[in-house]
Amino acid sequence: MTTAHSESPGTHMIVLPGGGYAEHTAHEAEPVARRLSEIGVQAGVFRYPLNVRHPVPLDALRAEIARRRAAGARRIGLIGFSAGGHLAGLAALAPGAAADETVQFAVLGYAITSMETETYRPARLILLGENASPQLRRSTSLDSLVTPQSPPFFIWHTAEDPYVPPEHTYRLASALAASEVPHAVHVFTHGPHSLGLAQGAGEAAIWTTLADAWIHEQAALDHAIDTP
After folding, report:
1. What share of the chain is helix, strand, coil (3-state, %, to 5)?
2. Backbone dihedral angles phi then psi of residue 22, each to the nearest 5 degrees
3. Are 35 and 109 in contact (CB under 8 A)?
4. Is the pTM of this model over 0.70?
C-alpha cells in the first residue's frame, strides 16, 4: 500500500457519488474517498444539490473547487459515478469557470455523458426539465464540450450496463480522441450499473488498480510545479 506521504500535498480529489441527480449513492461516496486516502491521495466527498435544475449543481461544485483551492490544493481532480460522473465532466469541460474553479483531471465511472440520448431519462428530466431545448441538451452533453485544451480523463464502464449504456463512454472517448486530449478508457465485458469500487465484481474490479496508477501520474505533475 502506498503511504500518504508519498503523494503530493498539493493535489486534492473531490468524490461525486451518483444517484440520478435525485439522491447520493452511499457506496460511491465515503468508501471511494477512503480508498483514495489509502493510496496516498487527499480526497473528500461533495454532496452536490439534488432535484434542482442546471446549472445549480455545477455552480455548487465550482464553488467547492474554489474552496479547496483556497485551502491549498494546487491540482484538483474529480472522481464521479453515473450522474456524479456527468457533473464531474461538466465541471471539467464546460466553459465559464473562473481560474480558481478549473479542474486538472477527471475520473468517470459509468457516467451519463450525453443529454441528447434517451437513456436514463429521469436524470435528464430532473436536471433539464421536460421541455429542454435541443441547444440546452447539447450544451450539457460532455462530448460537445471537449476542446484540445480539455484536461485528461480516465473513463470506465461495463458493456452490460442496462441503465447507462456504454455508448455514453464511447461518445465522450471519441470526442477526446478527436481533440487529442490525453485519456484512458476501459470497458469491461460484465457488470451491472452502480458498481462503485467493484470489489468482488470480476474483471471490472481491476478498474481501481488501473485508476490508481493513472491518478498518481496526474498527481505527480504537482511536483513539476516546484521543479525549476
Report:
1. 45, 15, 45
2. -115, -20
3. no
4. yes
Q: Is 104 helix (H, G, I), strand (E, B) or coil?
A: coil
Residue pair 140/90 in contact (Cβ under 8 Å)? The answer is yes
| Non-local CB neighbours of 217 within 8 Å, separated by 6+ positions | none
3-class SS at 148? coil
Evaluate whether 185 touches 169 at the Cβ level (below 8 Å).
yes
Q: Before 55, cis peptide (omega within 30)?
A: yes
Per residue of the chain (228 residues), give pLDDT as tens: 333 334 556 899 999 999 999 999 999 999 999 999 999 999 999 999 999 999 999 999 999 999 999 999 999 999 999 999 999 999 999 999 999 999 999 999 999 999 999 888 999 999 999 999 999 999 999 999 999 999 999 999 999 999 999 999 999 999 999 999 999 999 999 999 999 999 999 999 999 999 999 999 999 886 554 433
Q: Which residues pair with 76 in a beta bridge?
A: 12
Residue bearing cell 504537482: 222
How far apart are the C-alpha atoms of 198 and 182, rounded to whole Å? 25
Question: CB within 8 A of 38, min separation 6: which ones?
Answer: 1, 2
C-alpha cell of residue 70: 483556497
Q: Strand locations in the chain, DSSP E?
A: 11-16, 42-45, 75-81, 105-109, 153-158, 183-188
Cα gap 38→69, rounded to integer Å: 22
Amino acid 63 reads: A
- For residue 196, which amino acid is it? G
